[in-house]
Specification:
The complex is a heterodimer of chains A (412) and B (116). Chain A is globular. Chain A has helices at residues 6-33, 39-66, 91-112, 122-144, 149-152, 166-184, 200-220, 227-255, 260-274, 283-306, 315-333, 336-339, 350-379, 388-394, 396-401. By secondary structure, chain A is mainly α. Chain B is elongated. Chain B has two helices and six strands; from the N terminus they run βαββββαβ. Chain B has helices at residues 13-22, 72-82, and strands spanning 2-8, 29-35, 42-46, 51-55, 58-67, 94-99. Chain B starts with a strand and ends in a 17-residue tail after the last strand. Classes of the chains: A mainly alpha (412), B alpha+beta (116).
Amino acid sequence: MPDFDSGSLAWMIVASALVLFMTPGLAFFYGGLVRAKNVVSTMMYCFAAMALMPVIWVLWGYSLAFGEGNAFIGDFSFFLLNGINMTSPEAGSEIMFVIFQGMFAIITPALITGAFVERFKFSTYLIFITIWVTLVYAPVCHWVWGGGWISQGVFGDQGALDFAGGTVVHLNAGAAALVAAWMVGKRRGGAAGTIVAHNVPYVILGASILWFGWFGFNAGSELAADGIAANAFLTTNTAAAMAALTWLVISGLHTGKMSAVGAATGAVAGLVAITPACGWVDVGGALMIGLSASVVCYLCALGMEKSGVDDALVVFGVHGIGGAWGALMTGVFASEAIGGVKGLLEGNGIIVLEQLVGIVATFLYSGIATFIILKVLDVIPGLGIQEPENIEMSGLDVNVHGERGYVSDGAD
Amino acid sequence: MIKIEAIIKPEKANSIGLALEEAGVGGYFLSNITGKGNQKGVEVTTGRGTTKITRSSVPKTVITTVVDDSQKQKVLDIVLEYAKTGDGEIGDGKIFITKVDEVIRVRTNETGKEAL
């Protein structure tokens, strides 16, 4: 449990608010990428996570992630935050830690939704993320940050490095996204690759909010207002810029047009990849991670378009692969001068193996657990929209939420 | 009286509108539409800026005006002049002309030519 001085406490309050703001940013990012008839539905998947996850977090989510428990999962000792110091003058540290970590539990399930937008049953979605955050997010969070087996190290004393959630948040969500997109099936009414973003300004707005909020996510994960937090801020910004630039150039060379959606996606890919690394690498490492992440994720996005799985908004390509790549590169570029741990370039090859263990374990656990959860939910109450020919084709906004994103009736 | 509907490139709408006003045409309206003519479509980027595809629906603007027969040639000359790209290119549009039986101004109940 961290012990915040007043400066750090002030920073963590701001950082927590920044992380929360990423989820509506994600809503705009995803909302702009879908078709106009599904913009409300797509944004509601994200907003609903803001409504549901904080409730679960204070009930049992925090306890399962950070309760002592065993190497695999926490326990119910902090159920309803019982046992958390709420009243003494020093209480700020514990409460702030609960709040900050809770924000991560909001955005992680929201990230998954990009894979199954435009066709996933909303009520089933609410049940799905409730179960998922309990049985997938909380354990993986416990492994890495809650004193579980990955943090203890497999080959040595130093466990896998994940500064701000490259595996816990991004790879975890990306693996679940791949499974979910495959299980719910393809979108109707637009052969893969023919659906274009309906609102590119929303995509730019969303990516910018994500970039902004990510400073809380990454620099806040230092859990202190100090030099490492400042370094994390710098590496985050640098990697995001480098990745956006790289994607812009690649898409220009490849398609002949420098795509705005591409630049936004590149920025997000860079942010994802620097997430596990931001407190362990220097600015040179950040440039390399940003550049390489864009190349890897671009190829992945291209590959996903040609694959049979309709991962609608390339969550696996950007967050899954980007998160895994960033985790691996953390092991390569970690600098003793920054975070006190040597990486492969400084002669510490073991850390790359630890990173690989973290990546493979997260991917397999998240993928398999998500598969089982969705298999059960597919029986009761069903994953996809019922009467898809009617409801999915005319859009989820009107049929599921009774609202439209853009009202242009003459009478208005 | 006749109705002239010209499907044009959206970027030509302003200059045609101005020329019509200068020529004394009482009014017109613009509608932004999408559709497909004899041309093949328009190229757009999809995915995450990763793929180019051809979409068959092309954005166009319809400029619609109803004028007295005597003004017909003037309006057509304006559209034909300003809607052309250079000496004329594929996608410059089409003009449809139909007869109008009656025009009524709601405010005054005037009919015919006076109502235009």
